[in-house]
Amino acid sequence: MLETSKNIDTPPLSSQKLLNRRFCVAPMLDWSDRHCRAFWRQLSRHAVLYTEMITTGALIHGDHKRHLDYSDIEHPVALQLGGSDPEALAISVRMAEQWHYDEVNLNCGCPSDRVQNGFFGACLMARPTLVADCVKAMKDAGDIPITVKHRIGIDEQEGYGPLQEFVGTIAEAGTDAVIVHARKAWLQGLSPKENREIPPLNYDLVYQLKKDFPDLEIIINGGIQTLEDARSQLSYVDGIMMGRSAYQTPYLLAEVDEHFYQQAATGKTRRDIIHDFLPYIEAELSKGTRLNHMTRHILGLFNGQAGGKLFRRHISENAHRPGAGLEVLHDALAFVERSW
To answer: Which residue spans adopt a coiled-coil conformation according to this UniProt entry (predicted)?
Structure first.
């Protein structure tokens, strides 16, 4: 049976030198929770998975176990932090290392008002020296890879110069990699959703970073819809990060190991993936987790397939009901199978 909570005696994956960021699945607030990541791990053994952003305040002053807990099957898994106080970030890194996360990522890309009011996220791109201080404090706090996720710029910043300065400053501080969303962020006037869609993509700026910082690992993010798109990026950068496309059409992750890690694909059908996920769901149900908290992440598994709409509809209408159990999934699969 799959483990559903991590074992803090398990050696950290980062110490085993197994972390490979050729393909990453993005941190997505309210989406990439631990149940979602456990599901994704049924599709790819090697893609690096990222948590939702967790603030340093929530970790240090809140229920840190609730925020940090995850299943051992999720490795390799990275913790994304929101914060701008070097001391608080250092404390959070020590906590992440105790929980054997494989990487800690600092969010310098989120443009939401709430994040700006807490003085973290994309607004930090205007303070490269402060971000460098944060990175150095995080590096000094433990032996775990530290990365930064950021945009190509914010607001009125124009051209390549500010981006080059930002990356150069944090690279000198010791960041192990940067993950660059190839869109500018507008801190006023656009919502977080609009900031993911309206500012134009500029991949060339990210490619130029790799030319100017050849020894720094650079991961590109933004607008990557298919595995073909993703593979084409590897001619210019070290890895790619995919977000909403992976969430909405998760079965594409079933080909990641073969195409990005030169490992044999699992060969799992969509039906196999559901059946392999059932032990995890059963174990979580026994702990009191509601079925819909897990099944909301699998709704896109049969996108574009015969019976896919019936699969989604049955789960959406029944998984939230009190006492809902595995029978909901078995019945949803039956709708698909009757459509074949």
So the answer is: none
